[in-house]
Amino acid sequence: MNHHTIISLFALIFFSVGNGQTINVCKDCPISDLAIAIELAQNNDTIVVSNDITTNKPIRINKNLTLIGNEYPIMDGMNEHEILTVQTDSFTIKGFKFQNVGQSFTKDHAAIRLIKSKKFKIESNQFENVYYGIFLEKCSKGLIKNNIIKGNATVEYKSGNGIHLWHCNNITIDNNKVSNVRDGIYFEFVDHSNVINNSSHDNLRYGLHFMFSNEDRYENNIFERNGAGVAVMFSKKISMHENKFLKNWGTASYGLLLKEIYDAEITRNTFEKNTIGINAEGSNRIEYLGNNFIENGWAVKILGACFDNNFTKNNFLNNTFDVAYSGRLNNNSFENNYWSEYSGYDLDKNGIGDVPHRPVKLFSYIVNQSPESIILLRSLMIDVLNFSEKVSPIFTPTDLYDSKPLMKKAL
Prior knowledge:
Elements: H1 3-15, E1 22-25, H2 34-40, E2 46-49, E3 54-55, E4 59-61, E5 66-69, E6 74-76, E7 84-86, E8 92-94, E9 97-99, E10 110-115, E11 118-123, E12 126-130, E13 132-137, E14 140-145, E15 148-151, E16 163-174, E17 177-179, E18 185-191, E19 194-196, E20 199-201, E21 206-211, E22 217-219, E23 222-224, E24 229-236, E25 239-241, E26 244-246, E27 254-267, E28 270-272, E29 276-281, E30 284-289, E31 292-294, E32 298-302, E33 310-312, E34 315-317, E35 321-325, E36 333-335, E37 338-339, H3 362-369, H4 380-391
Parallel strand pairs: 1-2, 2-5, 3-6, 4-7, 5-8, 6-9, 7-10, 8-11, 9-12, 10-13, 11-14, 12-15, 13-16, 14-16, 15-17, 16-18, 16-19, 17-20, 18-21, 19-22, 20-23, 21-24, 22-25, 23-26, 24-27, 25-27, 26-28, 27-29, 27-30, 28-31, 29-32, 30-33, 31-34, 32-35, 33-36, 34-37
């Protein structure tokens, strides 16, 4: 019995029952090939695939289907090609294992690619040895949740991203674990979307990298041990709450890099053991509230063209340098923050220091001018220089100070 005869036979069986049916795919089932099941299926059908089925050829779907994997059946790219390409709405895939996506210098092969899809779910799947994991083009109103994505990235030009969105809106990325790819999560022209409860770690470049994306929310994520940390660029109306930026070390690595960001809220985040906690350039009207900066090289670096930024009730704890600042103050303010290096007093016991705190050290200024001088860190000579500059500022900004430093850590 040839291939077309089989399809015709099962079409009679399934299509006669109507829409919304379930098609089982297993070795002992009437259908033992996922591609045949997809060809037979109608819109709104569900295909349930057993874990004794392995699919190793490219699959393309243009129907509204739900694909359910039972104990992670394997879809294998054989290190040659893209695995699953979907161009339809109302699509769900859950419970599959994708592996060995083909690498290419001319095409961005992905384990799952969605094109112009709406109202979709990609949930509870496993991805191993991927080039790109999940790639969305011009999609909206979708959910990517509870997936585990692992790559084998070694150099940037031979690696792709874990979750990659381009020209999308209203996407939620929730509780995924992404590691060992180029950029863990990548946004370009993505609006009104949420990135929540994810872990992005040990990636070659950025844990999160997004550009030209507005009105997005990032909450309760962990970005750890990424080559260059997290980069947020050329965007506006961004909310970043209760995230952790941890152990992003390197000569060009940041907990959070901000470039050309406008009207953002960065609140209750933790920046711990990064080369630079926050590096801001050309970023305006940002509220930094209730963040913890712990044991970073530089807690905050403010470069040129930053205006109207407010640092309030943040905790600066045991950083080598709390603040490095270039240029004029430009209506940026530091007020009601806790500084572990503050040596003032509180005679009226109101919880606020009676003497302003100047967080910019002379040695920070020297290191910016001559990085090699870092070898003098913690020497007696540097302590004397910092103290003399604090008493009579010459090189550091005279108008950059916290007039109401907290005596105890902000809650």
